[in-house]
Amino acid sequence: MAVFMTGIRSSLSIGLLLIAGCASRGPEIPTYRSSDSASVESRVAWTGARASDRHVDDLDGIDTAGDDPVLDAWVTRARALRMEAEERRMQDAGVLMERIRSTEGGPRAGDLGTLADLRRSGLSPSLDSEAGLILEDGIQTWTDAALDAIEHDDAEAAVTALSAISMAAADGRHPRLELESRNQAGRLMDRIGITRDRTLPPRVLAYTLDRLVSVHVDRPEWRTLVDAGFTAAENACSNDGGRRTIMDIRASFDERTASLVEKPGEVPSRIRSALRMVGRRLEEASEAPQSIFGKGVDGVRIFLEGMIDTTDIRTRAYYGKDAESLERMLNDTYIGVGTELQSVPEGIILSPIAGSPSRRAGIREGDLLTEVDGVAVDDIPIGETIERILGRSGTVVELTIRREAPDGSASTLVIPVVRGEVERETLNGWRQVGHDRMGRPLWDWIIDPESGIAYIGIREFVEDTDRRFRAAIAEANRELQSVGGPDRQIEGLIIDLRDNGGGRRDSTERLLDLFLSDGDLFATEGNQSDSDDRTPASGRNTRLEGMPVVVIVDEGSASASEILAGTLQGRAGAIVLGERTFGKGSVQQVARVPDGYLVVTESWFKVPDGETGTRTIDRFKNPHRWGITPDVSSPATEEETIDFLEERGGWRSGLGQDGFNFEDLPTVETTKDRPLLDAVILLRRRLAPGDHPVVRDQ
Fold first, then answer.
1. Ordered structural domains, the chain, with CATH
2. For tag attachment on the chain, is the N or C end more exposed, with fewer CB atoms within 10 Å?
3. Are 131 and 168 a contacting pair, CB within 8 Å?
């Protein structure tokens, strides 16, 4: 199984992308018929939007000078919303920078993270320069703190400092540092407090080494990986006696393998046998009370992580509880309460998933979790908190939360939640218009009936995403035909990929097959077979070729999202709108092994490029041109994006405490979702007819 993953730890969102799979197809949809009636002015505005890096309301020809008063009003509103947001960012940045300067003992990590987010979203040149200097100083301050903590063997302080570096580096100017520091913090957290019931069996070293050598894109040599494992084990020893033990184990390994000749991509059986011996010796050396690594530390895991650390940032082993967490994330559904947990200094912030048991029970966004079944979360690791929340379907877990009111007061509530199946709604329309008897949402797919513009939001790519996409297209066509007659069809399409961290390759390819009738849908480079992996368009399933498309992206759009956005931009004439994407362009192979999972980077994927034909987009592989750059800029802060996507896909089931209110329905005239409004404006301008008046449906 090969996948694309945005995260480097199981606590981060990941996306699965299978190399091969059965076609899910779905309902048949009609072939798009181009009316070719757009005016010259509308085509000029559309063409001028390509690679403009301008805002929609600044594009030449976007105004119609009264020919379309609805569009002109939308443009005026979009300009006002953008200017308000820019002014708010400037004010917030000024206040924040003053607070950072006056903070005794150095800048707080949260303040640096907020400033980095504001800078990424766009500041004036002077404020941008000022913010850049403050962030650089903050990075240096926390780097010094991390080095000092590591020197004094204070792992918890090192994790805090490395996390702060990652937050300060999230301004779009430090693509490698942001992930490298987060990765170091994550790997260090894995090594803190590993108790005996989580130790790894000695055999994991041999088959992990074999997998790394035979699959990894960098073609590592087994000797390099083993040397790194021994170095990590030696550095982890708590005294000189322990280091002598590691040297003795290494001497035994070298004696058994001295005559072997290195062969690329192969691990001789004698190496695997010798490494099993190393694992057994490390297991014995980890036994209490004479452990050479300190209380509760697993020497096998230390050696394993040492080998993996020499590869790349996204290669990882998941064993024990980590494997169970990964397995839940790889599945489209799981049993639980359906809430995301974020650890903050005040406790654990809850974010209930739309339609989930926790939302039906009354958990709200921003609730602070304090106890699980009477056990204070401050007294246990977050991993144990998650395990206590999970359980069998139909059982009850009591969550004690602290909720703040708008006036600043707070109340403590004990909310019983019945565990059940949590199914992620991977596609959504532009607004929810109701729900069925089972609590599933009913969507409005048409955002502009006059122009025939449809909207489909894709939150992640799962096995049947392409089937659901086809169903949404079919339903959108029926919506139009119900008010405009049987000849109506979708004339333009908005695909929203914001905060979509990736997904399955097969469903992504089938989506692209709807838009492209020839050429490659997908291509990689760098795999160990020395041959590029390509998937050609079938030509049999193309239904939407030639349709005007706007793709909305942001910094959370990664992996499979970047394939879809970049390929539609480069080969289907789509306009990409929003922010520069994440830049995650590596393919991971997920292997189920006896004790868990191995996730190994096997190749780099490529997207079409006007200058070079194709290019890689990973921020590590292509540090200067990583990610997908939008044609039209429409930035938003992280807080704004959360609100925008809640309005788009934060549906209500109508069950329990999860009520649905028809009076809350957004309209194009009332939404504050700036990227969405920009996309509708761009498509409506593109579809404005020349000699034919706009037919307005009632």
1. 2-77+426-687 (3.90.226.10), 336-423 (2.30.42.10)
2. C
3. no
